[in-house]
Structure formats: C-alpha cells, structure tokens
Amino acid sequence: MKKIGLFLALVIVSGFVGNSAFAQVVIKYKDARLSSDERTADLLSRMTLEEKVGQLLCPLGWEMYEKNGTTVTHSKKFEQLIKDQHVGMLWATFRADPWTKKTLENGLNPALAASAANAMQRYAIDNSRLGIPVFLAEEAPHGHMAIGATVFPTGIGQASTWNPSLLEKMGKAIASEVRSQGGHIAYGPVLDLTLDPRWSRVEESMGEDPVLSGVLGAAIIKGAGAGDITNKEHVISTLKHFIAYGVSEGGHNGNAVHIGNRLLHEKYLPPFERAIKAGALSVMTAYNSVDGIPSTANKYLFTDVLDQWKFRGFSVSDLISIDGLMGNHHVASSIQDAAILAATAGVSVDLGSNAYPHLISAVRQGLINESIIDSAVYRVIRLKFEMGLFENPYVVPEKATLKVRNTEHRELAKRVASESIILLENKRNILPLNKKQKIAVIGPNADNQYNMLGDYTAPQDPEKITTVLEGIKAIVGDEQVEYVKGCAIRDTNLIQIKEAMDAAKRADVIVAVVGGSSARDFKTKYIETGAAIADDAGPSDMESGEGFDRATLDLLGKQMELLQALKTVGKPMIVIYIQGRPLNMNWVHENAEALLTAWYPGEEGGAAIADVLFGNYNPSGRLPISIPRSVGQIPVYYNKSNPQGHNYVELTAQPLYSFGYGLSYTQYEYKDIIVTQHAPFDVEVSFTLKNCGEYDGEEVAQLYLRDEVASVVQPVKQLKHFEKVFLKKGEEKQINFRLNNDDFSIINKDIKRCVEPGDFTLMVGSASDHIKLTKKITITSK
Questions:
Q1: Among candidates 253, 106, 121, which has minimal Cα distance to 580?
Q2: Rounded to whole angstroms, how far apart are CA atoms 603 and 529?
Q3: Which of 557, 589, 624 is the last residue of a domain?
Q4: Which residues are catalytic?
Q5: Tally of CB atoms within 10 A around 14
Q6: Cβ–Cβ < 8 Å for 507, 572
Q7: DSSP state, 715?
Q8: DSSP characters over 494-529
Q9: In this structure, are 440 and 578 located in the same domain?
Q10: Are residues 543 and 587 in the same domain?
Q11: How many domains does one find in the chain?
C-alpha cells in the first residue's frame, strides 16, 4: 500500500510540475490539456513530407467501405490509401447516386454509415505511424447527400423563404445528421450570385443579391455551429464556390468570367465574407477563371483576401480543379506544375487527390518550399484537434438512426418548403381552392418523386417523398382527384394530351404541374467531376443540375402543347412550376388563372404545395432572382449599375417578375415612414405595416438604398435590410431598420471600402419594383 501511495503522490506532484521529467513522458500532440495550436505544432514537427502531403489529399470516399448484408467495414482500397499516401480526408463517402453507383440496395443507411465511419477511423488511427484520424467531407447543400437523410428545398428555394431564423434551424438539422453518421465537413451553402438563368446550377444558389445571399448563408452557418466545432452536433461548413462562379460567359458551367476587381469586391465577395465572419471554416475554389486567372490558382483570393478576413480555416479545390489548371485552363504544362500553382496560391486541400501527390517530388526538386506545405497541413490538423477527433473519433450508430430524418427534421423540411413557394399570379382570387371541387391534376411533375428533390440528392425511400398529387389527395381524398401525366419533361415518346384534356373536361379546376428536372438516372453519363453530359443524356428528363446549361428557357418536350390544349377546355387552370432555374412563364402569365413556383421543394414539397393551394398555408415566398421574359434580356437583374436601362426595339427591358416579388392571399399596407439620423451614418428607418386583408399571413418588408452621387458608378438600388413579419388579419406593427456605415459604404476606385457623404434615397416596399414608401436624406459629414 505504501508503494501505491508513493506512486499516487508522484502522479499528483507531476500534475503540478509541468516541466518535470515525469510530465515530459506525455507526447505533446496527444495531450488534450494543451491548446490545439501547441498540439498541431508538435505533430507537424514529427511528420515526414509524405505524411504531410497525405493530410492534404481528399480522394473519393464511396469506395472506401465494403458492405456485406447488414455489416460494413473499411475496404482494401482504403487500406492501400492509408499505407501508400497517408490520406487524411475523404469526400462523399456516404454519397449515393448513379455516378457513384450506390443505390438503396448497396448503399448505406444512417446506422451503417456511422459503422463505416467508425471502421475507417479505427483503421486509419491504428495503422498509421502517428495515429491521425481522417476528416470525412460530405455534400450537404440542401440536406446530407446520403440515403435516409432529410431532403430540404434546394438553395434557390431556401432563399425564397427570406427567413434567416428558419434557415438557421435547417443548418442545425443538416449538421446534426452529418455528424451523427460520422461526417465532419458539410459542403454548403452555395453562395454564388446568379445573373444568368441558363447556368445549370442556379438551383444550388441563393439568387442574384449579395445581401440576401450573405444574410441567409450566414444564418445557415450559425445553425451548423458558427465555427464552434467542439460541439459534436456541429460541422465545418465549406462555402461554394470562390468566386463569381455563377456569372460565367454564355451561362456555361465553369467558363471564364469577365468582371473587374472593384465589382468583385462590391458584389461577389461580400456574401462569403459575411459567412466566414459567421463561422465558416472552409472555402472551395471554383472551376472558372476571373479576368484570366483560374480560381484554383488565384493567390490574391486564397491568400490575400482570406488573410484580410482573418480566415482561420482551410481551402479546398473543387473536384479535380487543380488538374484542370493543366487540362482545361492550360496555364500549367504538367500535373506537377498545376499542383505547385494551386499550393502556392494558398489552396490547402486537393479534392480528387490526383495533383498534390506530385508536391513531394516538387519539394525535393526545390520547386516549392516545404513551408507552404506546412502551412496548409497546419490549417487542416488544427481543426482536427479542435473538433476533438484525436480523443473522440467515433460515433454511435444507434444515435444516427434517431437523429437522421427524425420527425422534427421532416416537419422542418415541410416548413422550409412551405415558405419557399411563391405565388406569382392569382387572378380573380381563384386561390385558395374550394376543397369540394373536382380537380384534374395533370403534368410531368405532378407525381414524380425525384423531380421534387433537385440535384445533389441521394436515392430515397419512395414512401418518404410526397408529390403534388399525393399532397392534394391527402387533403381532399382520392375521389375528388383525377390524374393524367400528359407528357414528360423532355422525352417526347410519352404523349397523353388527349387523355389529359378528357380529365380536365370532367373536372371543375385544373392543377397543371410542369417545369424541369434535376433527377439523375442511369441513362445519363457523367464526367469525372460528377457533372452530367447533356449531349449523351438521351431520353432523360434532366434539363437542370450541374452540367445541364440551357440555350433557351422554354419548357421542353411537349409541355407547352399540353398547357395550350388544357386551356382550350375552358376550365380554370392553376399552373405550378417545379424547376431548378427561372423558366419561360410568359404564356402562363397571360393565360393561367394562377401561377406558382415551388423550385425543387424537397421531400415534403408535395404536402407544402397542397397546403398553399387549399389555404392551409398563406404563401409567403419571394423571388430571390428575377424571372426574365426572354433570353435576349439576360442578364436581367434589379440592382444593375447606373444608368437606368432602356427598352429593346421589340421588348421591354423589365423582367416578367422582379427580385423580391411574391403575392399573398391577403393585402398589406405600408405607411408612416419616419427616418431618424442618430449619427452621420447611423440612420433608423421606421414605418407601419398593416395586414388589411382577410387572411393571417407573412409579409417580407424590404429596404432598398440608392446612392444618388458617388465617386464610382453605383447600383440603381440595392437591398440593405429585410424582415419577414407575421401579422394576423387587421393587425399592424411598427418595423424598424437600422443602417450603419457598412450599409452606406462603397468600394472606391482604389478598391477600398469607404463611406462618402451625400444624398441617398431610402425605399421601402414589398419588392424591388413595388416600392411603397420613399424618403431622401442628406449626410453632410462623417
């Protein structure tokens, strides 16, 4: 007992004598009492060059596990990667889609995903010299892209809610689902501003405005953890795509972008800066170039700008975009040169892992300094320590079953879907519908489960996805509804127009559901990056989603013929667009009694749409992107630079529906604007908002600013603040917005943010082209 007591005494003393020989026995990087920086520095000092580069590799993950019935383990390929390349990160391990060839049968449910994550972590830790856990990065722009995960509306639908608090809850739910399955990094949100609806990835974005995108993106980041990755419910959020990816030449995905540096700082960088300040710890490069510099080789972006923002996370290439410096942009003559360009620019991680293995020979040949490798590794390893992976690398599979797609998350998906639906037309107040009417439900998207979900969605249990037809039947019953598909999105082999007309004649009202599709299938071929090849798609209905850029915005296939035929029946027609981009709505605008867009509303979208149709929910969605009348107007957006545009010979310059627009079943009155200047650039705007209609509802009050005279050309107007307000019928409320230096600031000719005294016009309204209250102010000094 005396010997045991003496040993305990020595242990206790060693706890107080930090420099004692006994305390030195603990390897510093394994000592959880030390800071993450101390541990990272120690671990880095022990690593070989090969081990360092391994931490910067992020190969494709879905081949790294093997499933045998109800059991799962790591694969032989994963063993080889750990042995040969010391890999420190995997991408899309749990992804399932036609590209990965993972299906509901051979893919992983949440519990098996967690087991697979544990198996890979255990092998990596036990079979590497230093026992470094791996990061698992997962696609999660509108829910975790994994079997069984909750599918929320795509980004453009999320933005249509104009509701930061709701998207914060969504961000929290997605993070929880990713972490419970063993993931650590969630790719999303997508903050690319979109000015060209021909671009294939509009659906992933949050629209055309930097303020709306930034506020909503920051809300999602806050929900995902706001950078506090010590919490086991939080993730590292990866922002996509840095930068100006959504305004490529001709609307071609990944094409060159032609904008100046000042505009870059004025419009495209602010959403990312706001999201990084909210806690985002990872940024992804883009496939495009800006003014001749490929994003993945842009040192100004990935070193200078991110350092100015005090970014403390890491950057990652888009999939094989480092290789693309050689094969696509032709600014590198070899894969090694491409790797050197990207690493020197400040890109930390190679997604795809083809290029950075060549950094080993580059260092030894003296072509790149090892300190550049060290800096990148430091950024990655430090976050592994901060996340606690060295102490707690494993998850509990049973918890994944409880966390993923639970009742709370499904209800949240429905709420986001409900608030994303935008009512664009409601002639003679035909909506809400009478539940006793006989309804003809017609169209290619009326009962198509995967067309509800959008791109970056894994296969899902059909029982858990609600279509429009199913949503309507759930409210009024089967007897009141007759369904005919009518036609497909693109495939012209399926034509049921006569049958659709016959059903319409037997009905009191027609609900026609048309639009687009991002649903991937095994008919579609994919390139290495996962983008689809449009030319080889054959009869696939896919006309949106990564790689599916459009030359026109018209409804494809026989959809317009279907609508025109239904019009001849003479019954009231409600048209719903389920779409990934703003499609041509001109004919429907003129001929339908009601028009809605639901974008891709997710798994609960059908129930949400039905609630709107029958008045169980008063639509509150507002456009985050303008809807053009013609491709000849593109780009058409509300905050264009002065001067005001003029009309074309054959067409107005105005969009069909402008940014911020959306109708309600009730009406709102704006009145009594008061502007109070507390300090030169501290201005409070107050006004009264009243629900003067017959329904309770939510209005999105929007505040715009115009700088009347500035040293550089400014937008004709720019959104500065907004608030979604619920008001019961007859209720009124005072709304207050506070503008500060940032709201009045501009990017001057020296690429500096500054404020300039002068005249400003404040505009309050329900949309960018529906201004209700205006007030001019003059600021005379700073």
A1: 253
A2: 26
A3: 624
A4: 318
A5: 16
A6: no
A7: B
A8: -B-HHHHHHHHHTSSEEEEEEE------TTS-B-TT
A9: yes
A10: yes
A11: 3
